[in-house]
Amino acid sequence: MRNAKCKMQIGRRALAPIAFCILHSAFLCAARAETIDRVLAVAAGELITLSDVTAARDFGLVAAGGAADPIGAILAKLIDRELILAEVDRFAPPEPAADAIDRELQQVRARFPSADAFEQALSRSGIDANHLRQTLRDNLRIRAYEDQRFTTAPPTDEELGRYYRDHPQTFARQGQLAPFEAVRADVARIVSDERRATLIADWLAGLRRRADVIDLYLARR
After folding, report:
1. What angle do CA 144, 215, 90 make, to 5 degrees?
2. Which domains does the chain have, with CATH numbers?
3. Of 39, 96, 117, 127, which sees the most CB atoms within 10 A?
4. Nearest of 68, 70, 30, 65 to residue 49 by alpha carbon
5. Sheet with 46-49: strands ordered across
């Protein structure tokens, strides 16, 4: 989660001073959060700390998905996010509207039972509402970039029929397979979403192969 930590430009030949920079940045984080933070990874020159993982979890920005190691699962997604943001910054998609960011922030606030609970979560994470707002802005920028870059052709009738036949459990209604025409729109949406997810996953795998990532959490395990 950006903009609360210093930016480091790390190349494959520039790793020697990284230990000092990480320690120095950890103390900056400690001063910010009034607690000793841990740097868990560096991705695309951005520090990712334990407080970042905590914030992503507490504010519902990233889900661990029932992983046995929730910290590692969330950290992996935050690493991917930084790699994606580095690409987004290169191509500069349109800036999200302020009211769109406001709606995202209201959705996050609505996950808490009270304003006090929301403020306590901010305090635990060592961030403020402005930093959270910036994170939500970046999420919208990522969505806009992916929507612009990853488009797929509409599936054909044959493809829709094949998916419907191959996944009957997905289209069961009250224990009975729903008629194809009744769920056609759902089939088309699922097929399109899966195709798009495959394109994004392949693209992200390429980013990972080219990226400079230091995963200190994984190294400690």
Report:
1. 30
2. 18-151+213-220 (1.10.4030), 157-198 (no CATH)
3. 127
4. 30
5. 46-49, 39-43, 213-215
Binned at pLDDT 50, 70 and 90, residue 1 comes out as low
Least confident span in 17-26, 89-98, 206-215: 17-26
Rounded mean pLDDT, 38-57: 93
* Token pair recorded at residue 6: 């210093």
On the question of pLDDT at 207 being above 50, the answer is: yes
d(Cα 88, Cα 26) in Å, to the nearest integer?
A: 26
**Residue type at 164?**
Y
For 86, other C-beta atoms within 10 Å of its C-beta total: 15
Residues 6+ apart with CB under 8 A from 178: 171, 172
pTM of the model: 0.78
Structure tokens at 180: 């194809």
**C-alpha span between 49 and 106 (Å, rounded):** 25
